[in-house]
Amino acid sequence: MTESPREPVPPKPVFAGCLGMIAAIGTMVAIALFMIVYLESGADTGRMVLRDYRSYAEGTIEYVGERNFYVVRLGDGSFLALDDLDAANRAAEGRRCRVQPLSPADPALPELLATYRSRFSDHASGANVVFREDCNRAVYDAAGLRLDGEGRNLDRYGVGVNEDMQLVVDVSRRICTEATPADDFTEVACSP
């Protein structure tokens, strides 16, 4: 007696189910890792976590181009985060100029220091740097105080240090100030 050929038995869905489960677990792990990195970065809160605060030398200025601000470590060891767009340029509809610290090699620096050093805020006393924007030629000291006339100082952001000793800048809210007879940095309402 000859046997008739058997029909092939379809594979059991176990293999496909295992692959589907592995893909689902992999996707969940990827989402969880993304969320941890995203939340830890401060992206959800406007907080930028930078490097260890001790790595910033006193009297230095470092640009954070990702969010357009300067981290300033003053001579007394305190930190400021200064926006690189001053009030006049923030309000401008057309071309905007951003403030920059003058290079020590800039030939205009000695004259600007001689002209404005007596107006430096207490926070910037002893500093050998000024910020300038080239559209309106506004000049600011290392703490962001407007030196060349009346007007708003450079806007600031809150700065702190987290439990890992990293510098944290809260870019979700600008702090706007101007010089008054009572204080060089009197908080005022931010416009534009």
Commentary on this structure:
This protein folds into 2 domains: 13-44; 47-188, Rieske [2Fe-2S] iron-sulphur domain (Rieske Iron-sulfur Protein, 3-layer Sandwich), CATH 2.102.10. 21% of the residues lie in helices and 27% in strands. The chain has helices at residues 14-40, 87-91, 109-116, and strands at residues 47-52, 60-64, 69-73, 79-83, 100-101, 130-132, 139-141, 156-161, 166-178, 186-188. The strands form 2 sheets. Strands 1, 2, 3, 4, 8, 9 and 10 form a 7-stranded antiparallel β-sheet that branches.
Quick overview of this protein structure:
The chain has 192 residues and is of the alpha+beta class. The chain has helices at 14-40, 87-91, 109-116; strands at 47-52, 60-64, 69-73, 79-83, 100-101, 130-132, 139-141, 156-161, 166-178, 186-188. A hairpin with a 5-residue loop joins β3 (69-73) and β4.
CATH architecture of the largest domain: 3-layer Sandwich
Principal-axis shape: elongated
Amount of helix: 10-25%
- What is the CATH third-level topology name of the largest domain? Rieske Iron-sulfur Protein
Q: Measure the end-to-end span.
A: 95 Å
